[in-house]
Write a structure and sequence with these properties.
heteropentamer, A mainly alpha, B mainly alpha, C mainly alpha, D mainly alpha, E mainly alpha, C: mainly alpha, 3 helices, about 75% helix, elongated, D: mainly alpha, 2 domains
Chain lengths: ~300, ~475, ~100, ~550, ~500
């Protein structure tokens, strides 16, 4: 039964993916891609990886989708939004793709089942109950710290893509929302709920599912809706609070790590007694940064063109 | 102290080089005194060491760069032979160059590289290991390039390009050879000839050929000589440097080192590579002379003459018999003295009388008598007339050829003598016998240009005249051969 | 068995993504394909991590990190595509405008 | 440290003194009167020769170790050379114009002199070679002194042959020195015949010396250079310098080798043929030059036969021939018929002496030479009197004719008197000195020259020759340019104008390879643009991944 | 250990600080912290020198649970080299990328991106965890791509995008390998992987990871993104991209092949890698010959120079134990990486000076600049010496060691490429040098502060000094050298 369900799910996933790749029209491909992300999230849930499912839904499907949609909208305005996929099969590419798929498929059957790291015994010392969170924020905190920096780097990268003349303009293109329209109402109504949900995800992430990334994403979505609804105004690059918000997550994380090193515990070493609270502080800070960063990533670099036109 | 001396002697030109680069263009006094001071200091050190080394002392300084890459500076008799030449000529050339350039631009660059060139030559001479030899060999290549290009006009730049186009593949071949050899034998120190039994004879021959290609470019062995005549676009002091003080000498010196200190004369004979090299040197001797005949520019003719003459050294080394070796080694000095005289004079003709072509020499004997006398002495020395320096080398080479069982060398020497006479005597003929062109001008009221030429000419006579004295180059060469390569 | 299904789906997704990445000139599509490959790999990884007696949390954590990293890369890429299109009018690399 | 020198300093002084005097013109103040030092230059040599030429100098540091000592017969030759150079020096001092050219002339005159003397003093091959080179090459300047077209052309020929000779000599000496492992001339001479390349060395030496000594057929330069040189130059060339080649033959040729025979043949050929060929010449100096070739031929014959009288013969010939050449100058300076006839008388006396008229120095020289000679060769020597008389008679006629032409420049009577007395002195010495030296040099009894048979043997060739002179006075032979066989080489002219390759050839070649190279580079650029396209590069990347994996997998 | 943490985190801290600082304070803070990092790098190198490799289990969790960092000699040397290059680039950029010269956007953007790049480099140099390396490499790539795009021109954006595609594809391939490695062995730690139970999938994992890293290291034929990207970036950024970025991915390759899975190496695969390297040497050289812009020449030179690094694969350890330069190839390749880094940075910085002076880097416009800017011309020439592999530069030491082991291993064709590549380098570097030294400047040059001119000169001199004093780095590189680098793969 469950196998049939999985098979059906996988067929769906593959079908949507195929539609993403082969479907005509970039916009349709984006829609398929978002759909794909949602199906995949279900797949993750089927695999019992609820944290991943949440992340995939929020980030992989949701945020990436919004990002692509926004980009597509801008491209369409530049007449670059669409290009029909090339007719016919690109044989070398198909062979390469098939080769990769077959190689991985073969690998699945050749893969031995190894002994995995013993998380269970280390979990009590991590300060959190959710093993995924423990890995993310304690066992492999260095990964996560770097990851937050990656986000920051992407944001900086996006920012510098502004044209020189636009540098001091507010971030992103201007969104036109009809006053009293659905979006505006939605924008007024959604944020408080989203805020609560996002904070909950972060809080719960410590012991159940969720975490800074998932929570941050929800918050980012809230922010985006608010922006699109013109509820809040897009800031400028030079806005100090904005920069502080972007920086605070990695900064707190780094500071925690360095303090630990300074007190002799070693870099990023969290004493079990303090671990829980420190992780919560870090998560809180991270959430702020992630939320702001993700939202800013979606709205893009400072752009005066949309405003003046 | 024994370790400091080789380093010190290197520094006497390296420090002026380094400092000169940063001097302002118009600080003539400081620059000149720096360079001349370095030269004098170096000469002093060399004289000191000459006596010490004659008494059997050796000086050594080691700087390990990396395992197997050992920078070894070592003063032995052969090294001293070469550096005494280059130091003496450096000193004279510096005087000459100061007068030659006057207040022309870019002098700090020129003298910087000039001293660097001499430093490289010194290092090359003092090198006690193949790898330090290579390092200085390359340093020489590089520091010479800006000198050749010094005028920065089209001919100079093209000459400089040609120079590099020959020199760098040559270096690649040399490096290739060094590494091929060392990969089998370990690092090669000149004091301790490597055990060649690890390589089969064919590989050894190939290595030898690569070595010769590598240093042969510098020694201007035919067919690797094309850069030398092209480099005539450079100013006269640079020609002097290329032909006498440093570059071609470095090549010839390299041949000597490779034959005697890397392979060993016995191995060279056993491998059967000495005779082909001697033949190549002979071809070069003849070919250079033939080409010299065709030139109607004085410096070009001199350049081809160098091609021919430097191969005497190679010939002497390749014959691998003691007397030939003496002849080759002593020619290192003798050719340097004679050729630098000729180039000094050519520069004076150019600078003071505007004469570049051979036809312009008509009647110059009257207008520039000192220069012309020096030029004539240099030319006659090249021909090999006794008692000038060239005769002594030629005589020993001939004896060495016979000793080595290669009597054809005599034919080569005789042909070379004739050809040398054929391309030099018309010059003397014009200088002394033909009337000057009516519009010819020129004087030699430039003592700083003439005196170096007179000194080297006198030296070229002196070393021939006093050849048998133990302090002569011949005496020194004999000491080297009997002490270090003797049976 | 389910794991195998998911893993093979992941492999197929990778294959599909590779094809799209190579064959499609529009850069937004390429970015989507890049994400397809990424998620396919994660799926494979997740399946692999779930084979043991207990579900291994490390792959899940790594996958979350990977998803964020992929998003970051996608965001920068999208930004580049938009900026390029704004200057050239095309959302494809200059020499691949008329790619077959 | 070895001592700077050992032995007597006299031989060294002989050489150094002229060299020092040669530097006189370098001092600007002295340059004007520099010609006046010329007669002084050979004086130490003269003194040394008069004192018996004994003493050895060894200078171990100089060159490759210099040994100076008079060679066998060296005293005679040294004396002769010194005398010739002294008188010629006087002539030059009187006859040549002073000035810058004269300064050069003085310098090279002295250098040539030193070389000429050095040849007779050298004990080792290097010194010998040095001296030989000095005398050969410095004489170039004597030949071209007048800087006329003719002189310059003659100089060119002279220097060419001289350099060739030097090269040949160097080969020979090196082979000898290598065989002897020693630089002493005596050792080299001993080692040469048995050395591996001894025969080549000997041949080379003969060529080298032969050129200098005017050995047929290497004599080319003599008839060309002598007329071109100023009179004192010709005098020393013919009187003294050519003897350097002769002494070389004597010093280096071992006894009893096949080369002796060769020398005899070449010498006899030259001895007769050159004298006859001289009759075709019009320039008296050219006639004399051929006479020199002829006489040198006889001397070479003597040397080849191993006669002990070579030096003695050469002594006479040197003095006589120098006197004859000076007579040409005297005749040119002669202003009055009386002076001309006086000149002719002196010249005739010397000519007869050279021809071997009995009781003259020349007759003694021939007798000394015949001593110990095989009969046939002695007969040839006697017979040579005929041709010598002929050619010198012809010379006298040409001299007379020459003088009849208007003098190029009027010369003062003092000049004539001075140069005449010089010529006369040499003439007198030529006639008389052999008498003085007879016993010492030949070891024959004092009455030997006046024996009837000897007188007769001297007399008849002269008479026969005089008859021949009468014949050619009537029927002169057609004129030939000096240098005879040189005409054969006219086809090879332009030896200096070596064909120049077109310089651009290599460049063109370079350009022709440059084009394909350039095209290849452009292809590379196009290929790079092609590879830059992601679809290709991406496929390659995936392929690379799978191939690498495959390669790794197959191996494990 | 503290030095290690400083080296690891100070660039990050500075990057975050710079984001918060006002424009005025930016440069002084960056310079001060650069100096501190250089010092810390020195301290780390000293610590490694005296005490052997420095290891840090981040968070106190040992692998396989946590991430281990380890500074061996190689990492310390690369950190030191990067610190020097970064410091120099910062010094040059303070003149070159001032807001009034290039605008507020570039004037701001460069600094945090540069620092993030630095942080990523140090993280990659030190990390022993495959996934952590993935994150580090991604950070590196994103920062690098952003730097390429910094100038904002269409060409730069296209180049950045192309770079991005290659980098992303490379990352995915690498990630695929990481997934397989963890799937088969349950660990990502290099040290633990070295003692793993071999699995069949290892070959696939290594192949995928290697191919991905090749794309990032720009080995032929995956170099095509590099020249436009490196030539399109502002000069200080180009210096970083060319000198440092490819070294990071190359280092991971080394870690994989020599430390994690040395048992997998097969002759054919090694041969393929080195052959691609050899082709890169020739191809890069040939294409550098036909370029008309200085930065493109220098960029293609990077393609060629990176090719040498790959000779390490068939050669490392192949020289037997008899010679004193055992492990020559391994050390030689690392010397190449170090000296190329210094010299290439110097070269791009000189290009930046020329562009600042005359507004162009076309060879035709550079004529005669050696006279106007002698120090810069000298710096370029010195750097060229290193790239040509002429003594006594670090490039020479590298080439010497590589060639020696090529001969000792009996694989002389690599030596041929090494020698020929040097000649080719001379040929393509000769063109700019000849142009610089030509007689007369055609364009009037704007004045350049001497301090700015001195920066590339110092770097170039360092690259020479590396050869002169190669004994010290040589010994440093031996510390913690993996065993397969002694015995051969």
């Amino acid at each position: 039964m469950s196998l049939a369900l999985d098979l059906a799910l996988c067929a769906l996933i593959l079908g949507v993916a195929l539609a993403t790749v082969a479907g005509g029209g970039v916009f349709r491909a984006v829609i398929f891609f978002i759909t794909y992300g949602l199906f995949l999230a279900i797949g993750w849930a089927r695999l019992g990886a609820f944290d991943v499912a949440l992340a995939e839904a929020a980030i992989g499907a949701g945020l990436t989708g919004v990002l692509l949609l926004a980009a597509h909208a801008r491209l369409r305005r530049m007449q670059a939004g669409d290009a029909p996929p090339p007719a016919g099969l690109n044989l070398p590419a198909a062979l390469a793709g098939a080769g990769m798929a077959l190689a991985l498929g073969w690998a699945w059957f050749a893969l031995p089942v190894p002994a995995t790291p013993d998380i269970a015994s280390a979990l009590p010392r991590s300060g959190v109950g959710n093993p995924v969170t423990a890995v993310l924020l304690n066992f492999r905190a260095w990964d996560t710290l770097l990851e937050s920096i990656v986000l920051l780097a992407a944001l900086l990268g996006v920012w510098i893509l502004a044209r020189d003349g636009d540098w001091n303009a507010p971030l992103g293109p201007r969104y036109h929302a009809l006053s009293g329209g659905v979006l505006v109402n939605f924008g007024r109504f959604l944020p408080p709920i989203g805020l609560c949900f996002g904070v909950y995800l972060v809080w719960a992430g410590a012991d159940y599912i969720g975490g800074a990334f998932q929570g941050g994403t929800v918050l980012a979505a809230v922010g985006l809706v608010a922006l699109m609804a013109n509820v809040v105004r897009p800031p400028r690059v030079s806005y100090a609070l904005l920069r502080a918000a972007v920086v605070i997550g990695p900064a707190v994380f780094l500071l925690a790590g360095l303090l630990a090193a300074g007190f002799g515990a070693g870099f990023l070493t969290l004493p079990p007694a303090l671990a829980k609270s420190v992780i919560l502080v870090i998560e809180a800070a991270l959430t702020i940064s992630i939320a702001v960063t993700l939202a800013l990533l979606v709205i893009g670099p400072p752009d005066d063109a949309g405003r003046s036109s | 102290m024994t370790a400091a001396l080789p380093v010190l002697i290197l520094l006497t030109s390296l420090i002026p080089a380094g400092v000169t680069f940063f001097l302002a263009q118009d600080s003539h006094g400081l620059r000149n005194s720096l360079n001349l001071g370095g030269a004098v200091l170096k000469l002093g050190l060399i004289v000191w060491m000459l006596f010490a080394v004659a008494g059997g002392a050796t000086y050594e300084a080691t700087l390990p760069l990396a395992p197997g890459l050992v920078m070894l500076l070592r003063v032995d008799a052969l090294a001293l032979l070469f550096i005494s030449l280059s130091a003496t000529l450096w000193f004279l050339t510096t005087i000459y160059a100061i007068a030659y350039f006057g207040a022309k631009p870019e002098l700090s660059r020129f003298f910087g590289f000039f001293s660097l060139c001499v430093a490289a030559t010194t290092g090359l001479a003092l090198s006690g290991s193949l790898i330090s030899f290579f390092i200085f060999f390359e340093l020489l290549t590089l520091s010479t390039w800006p000198l050749v290009a010094h005028k920065q006009d089209k001919p100079s730049l093209s000459a400089a390009r040609v120079y590099l186009a020959y020199a760098l593949p040559g270096s690649a071949a040399l490096l290739w050879a060094i590494i091929w050899l060392e990969s089998a034998t370990g690092p090669v120190l000149f004091t301790d000839p490597p055990d060649l039994s690890a390589l089969d004879p064919y590989a050894l021959r190939a290595i030898f050929a690569l070595f010769i290609i590598g240093v042969g470019v510098k020694a201007a062995l035919v067919p690797l000589h094309g850069w030398l005549p092209a480099a005539m676009a450079a100013p006269a002091p640079v020609s002097a440097l290329l032909h006498a003080v440093a570059v071609v000498k470095a090549g010839a010196f390299g041949v000597v080192r490779i034959i005697y200190d890397v392979f060993g004369a016995a191995n060279v004979i056993a491998l059967g590579v000495g005779v082909p090299l001697a033949a190549l040197a002979s071809v070069t001797i003849i070919w250079g002379s033939l080409r010299a005949l065709q030139q109607d520019e004085i410096k070009k003719r001199l350049a081809y003459s160098t091609v021919s003459q430097v191969s005497y050294i190679v010939l002497g080394a390749a014959l691998a018999s003691p007397l030939a070796m003496i002849g080759g080694l002593v020619h290192l000095i003798h050719q340097g003295l004679m050729k630098i005289t000729l180039f000094f004079c050519a520069g004076i003709y150019d600078e003071r009388a505007g004469v570049k072509k051979i036809t312009g020499l008509n009647g110059m004997g009257q207008r520039l008598p000192w220069t012309s006398v020096c030029f004539s002495l240099g030319a006659m020395g090249m021909i090999g007339l006794p008692p000038l320096a060239g005769f002594v080398s030629k005589f020993y080479l001939g004896l060495g050829g016979l000793e080595a069982g290669a009597p054809w060398v005599l034919g080569v020497l005789a042909a070379s003598t004739l050809l040398n006479a054929t391309y030099f005597l018309p010059l003397l003929y014009r200088l002394w016998f033909l009337p000057a062109a009516p519009d010819a001008t020129g004087n030699e009221r430039a003592p700083a240009l003439v005196i170096p030429a007179v000194v080297t000419a006198a030296a070229a006579v002196g070393v021939g005249l006093l050849a048998a004295s133990p302090i002569s180059p011949l005496g020194w060469a004999t000491l080297i051969v009997t002490r270090e390569y003797g049976p | 068995m389910s794991l195998t299904v998911f893993a093979l789906t992941g492999a197929a997704l990778v294959g599909l993504g590779v094809y799209g990445l190579l064959a499609l000139p529009h850069l937004l599509r390429r970015i989507m394909c890049f994400n397809l490959i990424g998620s396919g790999l994660f799926l494979f990884f997740g399946a692999a991590g779930a084979r043991g007696a207990a579900v291994d949390a490390i792959p899940q954590a790594l996958i979350i990190t990977g998803i964020v990293v992929a998003l970051s890369a996608s965001a920068l890429a999208v930004g580049l595509v938009v900026a390029l299109a704004r200057r050239t009018g095309h959302a494809a690399l200059p020499d691949e405008d008329r790619a077959p | 440290m070895t001592a700077l020198y050992s032995g007597s300093l006299m031989p060294l002084a002989v050489l150094v003194w002229p060299l020092l005097l040669g530097l006189v013109p370098l001092v600007p103040r002295w340059r004007e009167g520099a010609l006046r030092v010329l007669p002084l230059a050979p004086l130490p040599a003269l003194a040394f020769a008069a004192a018996g030429a004994s003493g050895t100098t060894v200078l171990p540091d100089l060159l490759l170790g210099v040994h100076l000592a008079a060679v066998p017969g060296g005293a005679l030759l040294l004396g002769m050379t010194a005398l010739v150079w002294t008188v010629a020096g006087v002539h030059a001092a009187l006859a040549l114009k002073s000035g810058v050219q004269a300064g050069n002339f003085v310098g090279f005159w002295c250098l040539t002199l030193a070389g000429n003397l050095g040849v007779f003093l050298a004990g080792d091959v290097v010194t010998f070679y040095l001296a030989f080179a000095a005398v050969s090459l410095a004489a170039w300047f004597l030949v071209v002194h007048e800087r006329t077209q003719k002189a310059l052309a003659a100089g060119k020929l002279y220097i060419t042959l001289a350099v060739l000779g030097e090269a040949a000599l160097l080969i020979g000496l090196m082979i000898g020195a290598a065989a002897a492992e020693d630089l002493q001339i005596t050792s080299v001479r001993a080692a040469l015949p048995d050395a591996p390349l001894g025969q080549v060395g000997l041949a080379a030496l003969i060529v080298g010396f032969g050129i200098k000594a005017g050995m047929v057929p290497l004599h080319l330069w003599l008839p060309v250079a002598h007329p071109a040189a100023p009179v004192p130059g010709s005098a020393v060339l013919s009187g003294a310098i050519v003897k350097a080649g002769l002494i070389g033959m004597v010093l280096f040729l071992p006894d009893g080798s096949g080369w002796g025979t060769m020398l005899i043949v070449a010498g006899l050929t030259g001895g007769f043929w050159a004298a006859l060929w001289g009759v075709t010449q019009r320039n008296p100096k050219a006639v004399l030059a051929y006479s020199t070739v002829s006489q040198m031929g006889l001397m070479l014959m003597l040397a080849g036969a191993g006669s002990g009288g070579v030096a003695y013969y050469a002594l006479h010939h040197g003095l006589a021939k120098a006197a004859l050449f000076l007579c040409v100058g005297v005749m040119a300076a002669a202003a009055t018929p009386r002076q001309r006839s006086a000149t002719l008388v002196v010249a005739a006396a010397v000519a007869l002496s050279v021809a071997g008229l009995p009781l003259t120095g020349g007759a003694l020289a021939k007798l000394g030479g015949k001593d110990g000679l095989p009969a046939a060769l002695a007969l040839a020597l006697t017979l040579s009197g005929v041709t010598t008389t002929l050619v010198l008679g012809w010379f006298l006629m040409r001299l007379d004719q020459h003088a009849a032409k208007p003098a190029a420049k009027p010369a003062g009577p003092h000049l004539w008197r001075g140069v005449f007395s010089g010529a006369a002195l040499l003439a007198g010495l030529a006639l008389a000195l052999p008498w003085v030296l007879w016993a010492g040099a030949t070891g024959l009894p004092a009455g030997y020259p006046v024996r009837g048979a000897n007188v007769f043997a001297g007399l008849w060739p002269v008479l026969a020759g005089l008859c021949a002179v009468a014949v050619i006075k009537r029927w002169a032979l057609p004129a030939q340019p000096p240098g005879d066989v040189l005409a054969l080489f006219q086809g090879l002219r332009g030896w200096a104008a070596f064909p120049a390759w077109p310089g651009g050839q290599r460049l063109r070649h370079a350009r022709s390879i440059r084009r394909p190279a350039l095209r290849a580079l452009l292809h590379a650029k196009a290929a790079e643009d092609h590879m830059r396209r992601w679809p290709r590069a991406g496929v390659m990347l995936i392929v690379a991944a799978l191939v690498l994996a495959g390669l790794l997998g197959v191996a494990n | 250990m503290s030095a290690l943490v400083v080296v690891l985190t100070l660039p990050l801290v500075t990057a975050l600080t710079v984001l918060l600082l006002p424009a005025r304070a930016r440069v002084p803070v960056v310079l001060a912290s650069s100096a501190l990092i250089v010092l810390a790098a020195g301290a780390l190198a000293l610590a490694v020198w005296h005490g052997g490799p420095v290891t840090l289990a981040v968070g106190g969790w040992a692998p396989p649970l946590g991430i281990a960092l380890r500074a061996d000699g190689l990492a310390a040397a690369l950190i030191m080299m990067s610190a020097l290059v970064m410091g120099a680039v910062a010094l040059a950029a303070q003149f070159e990328l001032t807001p009034d010269r290039v605008g507020a956007r570039m004037g701001f953007g460069f600094w945090p991106l540069m620092l993030l790049l630095w942080a990523a480099l140090n993280a990659v140099y030190l990390s022993r965890d495959l996934f952590n390396l993935y994150v580090g490499v991604e950070l590196l790539s994103l920062a690098a791509v952003a730097l390429v795009a910094l100038s904002g021109s269409a060409q730069a954006l296209a180049a950045a995008l192309r770079y991005m595609i290659f980098a992303l594809a490379g990352s995915l391939l690498y990630l695929a390998g990481v997934v397989l490695a963890y799937g088969a062995h349950g660990t990502l730690d290099i040290g633990l992987l070295a003692v793993r139970v071999p699995a069949h999938t290892d070959a696939l994992a290594l192949g995928l990871m290697t191919a991905g890293l090749l794309a990032k290291t720009a080995l032929f034929p995956f170099h095509v993104w590099l020249p436009p990207a490196h030539a399109g970036a502002p000069a200080p950024a180009s210096a970083l991209l060319s000198a440092l970025v490819p070294k990071a991915s190359f280092l991971i390759l080394i870690r994989l092949w020599f430390e994690a899975m040395p048992d997998l190496a097969s002759g054919a695969a090694l041969l393929v890698l080195a052959a691609l390297g050899a082709i890169a040497v020739i191809w890069g050289g040939v294409l550098a010959l036909v370029q008309k812009r200085l930065k493109l020449i220098v960029a293609y030179s990077t393609v060629a120079q990176l090719g040498y690094l790959f000779f390490i694969f068939p050669l490392a350890g192949g020289d037997g134990s008899a010679q004193p330069w055992a492990a020559g190839a391994w050390t030689g390749a690392m010397f190449q990486a170090l000296s190329h880094g210094l010299a290439k940075a110097a070269m791009f910085l000189t290009a930046g000076i020329y562009i600042a002076a005359i507004g162009s880097d076309r060879l035709g416009d550079l004529r005669g600049l050696a006279r106007t800017l002698p120090m810069t011309g000298f710096a370029f020439a010195l750097a060229a010496i290193t790239l040509m592999g002429l003594p006594p530069s670090g490039g020479f030491t590298a080439k010497y060691l590589l060639m020696t082991s090529a001969f000792a291993a009996g694989q002389w064709p690599w030596a041929l490429v090494l020698a020929g590549g040097g000649v080719l380098a001379a040929a393509y570097l000769y063109r700019p040098i000849a142009a610089l030294f030509a007689q007369r400047a055609q364009t009037a040059a704007r004045p350049i502060p001497r301090a700015w001119q001195a920066v590339p000169l110092v770097l170039a001199a360092l690259s020479i000094l590396l050869g002169l004093l190669s004994a010290i780095p040589f010994d440093l590189l031996q510390i913690g050298r993996p065993a397969p680098a002694q015995e051969g793969l």
